[in-house]
Amino acid sequence: KLFFTDYGNAAKVERCDMDGMNRTWIVDLKIEQPTALALDLINKYVYWLDIYLESVEVADYQGRRRQTITKGRQIRHLCGLAVFENYLYTINSDNLSILRINRYNGTDVEALAMLDNAKEIRVYQKRTQAAVRSHACELDPYGVPGGCSHICLLSSSYKARTCRCRTGFILGSDGRSCK
Fold first, then answer.
1. How many CB atoms lie within 10 A of CB 58?
2. What is the pTM of this model?
3. What does DSSP assign to residue 76?
4. Distance between terminal CA atoms of the chain?
5. pLDDT tens sequence across 60-115
6. Closest C-alpha among 161, 134, 166 to residue 149
7. 2-125, which class in CATH?
8. Do residues 37 and 68 make contact, with C-beta atoms less than 8 angstroms apart?
């Protein structure tokens, strides 16, 4: 799945398949400017910053069990968001510090380090990396991903895929080749 925020005409947190299909709104009420999000892949929660409402919130992948983690004016200066174990990590754009926030109660806010310039933060940890298994976009015997001549995108499951073409090309009737 691909998770993303949108604060155009109607602000929301959404998800879709990697090929853009099955687009689903997770949160579309009481949300104004969601600017960053992070996923708890193990427990299936999505966290987001709303700089207009000055809040950090969480909901499950279906938009249920929504909770506010923390609120306050300091939120409008945050950018980027990552989750690891009991904490959220973000960047304070005012003083370029990395902040750690307890994700269960919004307390224990601690500045960990100062940076010269940063707008995004990521945590990489082996437990959060999905195990690699056979999937529909694997190289075929000719070295072509999923048999697609240009781009292979996973669809509704790791067993399904959609072929797409680069700009200026159209997908052929076989659903795999680009012309």
1. 21
2. 0.83
3. G
4. 28
5. 999 999 999 998 877 778 889 999 999 999 998 888 888 899 999 887 787 788 77
6. 166
7. mainly beta
8. no
